[in-house]
């Protein structure tokens, strides 16, 4: 079978069985399950060290209440990092090149941040619709613009990731041959 | 999923203590194929068995075009060589780094324990010293008691002396008073006698006494001349 450059972006099927779930869950196999050892083997030690580094980087600017987001943000980052890096190997499939998966990630998270902001601090979150220091005549127009950008955000997030990954992998394939 | 220990089919699962990790991982040949595979094939095919199997499989896939050589093959070869080079070059450094992380963890805990032990030892030393001091207290108390007794004695003696002096002063006063009185009486009496005698001496008696004195003197002068 002749492979074209776009074959890496088709969802993998084996004898009619979709393997997409396997390809999404495979990177989780690479990280060891937490066991109750204090001194772990070298692989676990290194991965834990890396996780600690990433979590600290994410969480230092936040105050105590923001640390609730630590788990989901770190795990999301590590998953996406692993999926994208594994996709660079030949004969692999990158799930994040599918628009469906990225929209599935972007839409709920964006909605979660929006609703959390509206529930906890409604005035501040609505106040973000207007940037500081705008001259008075521009206010109505700017509010419309900011609202539009807010609503477009999930689409932007999803499409951004898809486009970046697709373009990147394709470019790498092109350059390497 | 927690790794628990459990004797096969006999015991309940136990969360602690975990068996220690083995020193080295499973033996692997060429980084991919475990040694047990070679041992498994050894009785039937000898040493070259697995290599023949691998070569045969590879040639089969290539010749029957089950695996087609395309651009990704070249990419795979390049990526593989880079990965192997990276592992060979930096593998031991990374392993040393991971070991260092673990060592630091253990060292931190050990240092806590050691410092606790040291603190307790110094506490024991100080306690022993305090006990020795308490033993010495007996002598201290004896000497203090002696001091106090001496002070009391001294004070008592001083007060005794004061009392003696005061009493002596009063008695001396009485004696002096009596002496003075007697003296005064004596003086007065002498004066009275002298006054009376002086008054009683009449001029007649005066002349007679003077004449007598002259006669006596003459008699004496005679005898005195003889003595010379």
From TrEMBL, chain A:
SUPFAM superfamilies named in the record: F1F0 ATP synthase subunit A
GO terms for MF: proton-transporting ATP synthase activity, rotational mechanism
Gene: ATP6
UniProt family annotation: Belongs to the ATPase A chain family.
The entry's keywords: ATP synthesis, CF(0), Hydrogen ion transport, Ion transport, Membrane, Mitochondrion, Transmembrane, Transmembrane helix, Transport
Compartment(s) where it occurs, according to its Swiss-Prot or TrEMBL record: Membrane; Mitochondrion inner membrane
Pfam families cross-referenced by the UniProt entry: ATP-synt_A
Gene3D superfamilies recorded: ATP synthase, F0 complex, subunit A
Assembly: Component of the ATP synthase complex composed at least of ATP5F1A/subunit alpha, ATP5F1B/subunit beta, ATP5MC1/subunit c (homooctomer), MT-ATP6/subunit a, MT-ATP8/subunit 8, ATP5ME/subunit e, ATP5MF/subunit f, ATP5MG/subunit g, ATP5MK/subunit k, ATP5MJ/subunit j, ATP5F1C/subunit gamma, ATP5F1D/subunit delta, ATP5F1E/subunit epsilon, ATP5PF/subunit F6, ATP5PB/subunit b, ATP5PD/subunit d, ATP5PO/subunit OSCP.
Descriptive protein name: ATP synthase subunit a
Top-rank taxon: Eukaryota
PANTHER family: ATP SYNTHASE SUBUNIT A
Automatic annotation (TrEMBL), chain B:
Main location: mitochondrion
Superkingdom to which the source organism belongs: Eukaryota
Keyword Glycoprotein tagged: no
Keyword Nucleotidyltransferase: no
Location relative to the cell: Mitochondrion; Mitochondrion inner membrane
SUPFAM superfamilies for this protein: ATP synthase B chain-like (SSF161060)
Keywords: Acetylation, CF(0), Hydrogen ion transport, Ion transport, Membrane, Mitochondrion, Mitochondrion inner membrane, Transit peptide, Transport
Family classification: Belongs to the eukaryotic ATPase B chain family.
Protein name: ATP synthase subunit b
């Amino acid at each position: 079978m002749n492979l074209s450059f776009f074959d890496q972006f088709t969802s993998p099927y084996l004898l009619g069985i979709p393997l997409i779930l396997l390809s999404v869950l495979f990177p989780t196999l690479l990280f060891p399950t937490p066991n109750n050892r204090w001194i772990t083997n070298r692989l676990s030690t290194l991965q834990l060290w890396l996780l600690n580094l990433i979590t600290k980087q994410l969480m230092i600017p936040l105050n105590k209440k923001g640390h609730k987001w630590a788990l989901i943000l770190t795990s999301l980052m590590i998953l996406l990092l692993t999926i994208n890096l594994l996709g660079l190997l030949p004969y692999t499939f990158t799930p994040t090149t599918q628009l469906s998966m990225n929209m599935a990630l972007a839409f709920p998270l964006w909605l979660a941040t929006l609703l959390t902001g509206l529930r906890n601090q409604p005035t501040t979150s609505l106040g973000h619709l207007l940037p500081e220091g705008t001259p008075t005549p521009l206010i109505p127009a700017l509010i419309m613009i900011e609202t539009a950008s807010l609503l477009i955000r999930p689409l932007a997030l999803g499409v951004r990731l898809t486009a970046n990954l697709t373009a990147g992998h394709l470019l790498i394939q092109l350059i390497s041959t | 999923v927690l790794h628990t220990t459990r004797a096969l089919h006999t015991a309940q699962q136990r969360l602690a203590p975990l068996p220690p990790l083995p020193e080295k991982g499973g033996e692997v040949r060429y980084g991919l194929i475990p040694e047990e595979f070679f041992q498994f094939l050894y009785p039937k095919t000898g040493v070259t068995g697995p290599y023949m199997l691998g070569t045969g499989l590879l040639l089969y896939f290539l010749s029957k075009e089950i695996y087609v050589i395309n651009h990704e093959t070249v990419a795979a070869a390049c990526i593989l060589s880079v990965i192997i080079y990276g592992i060979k070059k930096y593998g031991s450094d990374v392993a040393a780094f991971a070991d260092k992380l673990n060592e630091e963890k253990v060292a931190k805990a050990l240092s806590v324990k050691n410092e606790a032990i040291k603190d307790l030892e110094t506490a024991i030393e100080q306690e022993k010293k305090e006990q020795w001091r308490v033993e010495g207290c007996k002598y201290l108390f004896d000497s203090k008691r002696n001091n106090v007794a001496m002070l009391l004695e001294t004070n008592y003696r001083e007060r005794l002396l004061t009392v003696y002096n005061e009493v002596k002063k009063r008695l001396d006063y009485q004696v002096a008073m009596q002496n003075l009185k007697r003296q005064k009486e004596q003086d007065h009496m002498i004066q009275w006698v002298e006054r009376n005698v002086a008054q009683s001496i009449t001029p007649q008696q005066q002349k007679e006494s003077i004449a007598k004195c002259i006669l006596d003197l003459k008699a004496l002068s005679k005898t005195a001349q003889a003595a010379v």
